[in-house]
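S2.1 Query sequence (S41 family peptidase)
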Amino acid sequence: MKNVSFHRYVISLICVAILSGGGVYIWQKSTAATQSPQNQPTVTTSNELEKVQTLFDQIRANYYQEVDEDVLVEGALKGMTDALGDPYTTYLSESAANELDQSLSSSFEGIGATLTLVNDYPEVAQAPIKNSPAEKNGLRLNDRILKVDGKETKGLSLTEVVNNIRGKKGTTVKLTIQREKETFDVSITRDTIPVDTVHTDLDSEKKIGKIEITTFGESTASELKEGIESLRKKGAKSFILDVRQNPGGLLDQVQIMASMFLEDGKTIVKFTDDRGVISETKASAALDEGFKVTEPVVVLVDGGSASAAEIFAAALQESADIPVVGTETFGKGTVQNVKELGDNSELKMTVMKWLTPNEEWVNEQGVMPDHQADFPEYAYLAPLPRDKELKEGQSSEAVDRLNQFLSALGYRTTGDTFDQTTVSAVQAVQQKAELEVTGKVNAETAQAIEKAVTDQLKQEDHAYLKAVELLSK
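Output structure tokens follow.
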């Protein structure tokens, strides 16, 4: 597992496992040329491409081993975009294009189970999606998937496992499941699984509607409208919009959503290229169909809020004086167009920069919140290891993280040594979680500790608490 923060790991786990895609982007998709006349590409002469063809022919004819021509072509195409030095401009092979498309789709075809890796095996990370094939076939939390269609899963990446389980609606996948001491096979018929990008909850005491927006997918604007209408019916008088760890998404969706919170005529975003400002988008009924949110609102952001999430936060901050709470955002100020190349591959290319309503370019700087607030430091520690046991007498960075997690839970642990105090704290956690009380940290105990820490983080979400304070004035 990469050395990601525990906070980021917890928040992004579901998206990574279910969608197996994502990234930092704002994009529009086209299947035909959409350039204005001044942006039409120049015609490359045959002489300019002659060296490319010559190199291809020389490799194909004279390389000492067999050459896969498709691999050569793919490499040449990727090299052309890499030469631009722009991390957001890239050639997408068919599989990469599918992954990007699925990451913003309102649904996917699969079984509806969220997975994580434990000791090199995929396990069901939470209860299956309601009414999904996984739920109907009895999959449970912590079920370990040993095989997919007879193929061993141990050592595979999470993306590889997810891609093997996914497939066309109506087709069947056979999973070999280990549940405690029992091993059995289950055949599951894949179906269309809806992907919710907006999650709502109500603080009934304070009448605050909590809205988490995980990405800007193809149906996010309609989900947001439905969520707000539902919260209003339940009594919500104000809203907290949480776009923390939101990596971005579709430009049309963020423009519709921002328009809901702005007076008509107010600027949402401006666009520029090397000639200067070329266009801007303003709030209007043409975007939001007259649906407006006039209740008090606060927006939550962090370093994982990027691209479309930054457009959203900046628009509300600068054009509606809506307070933004959290930490400095990611800082991605460019827009990509995705063009199909005719063989299921795609070109994702930066076509312009975007500016805030006040014409600030946030690239590599981010949107600054009006009120700084963050999770406690332990939220940014890496997760505990799953591939080795931690026990008394050991000293390591992993033990140091363990002691910090236990300290956050109220135990008097400190330092990077697994001492008797650590043993006692681990035993207490195991007892509460109804695990075997050993005083050692295996994968199950690590998961129990992290679950307890996740619950604790909900009580120490300083950005959310600040938002509540602002809305309660």
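Confidence is low (pLDDT under 50) at residues 1-24, 31-42. The radius of gyration is 25 Å.
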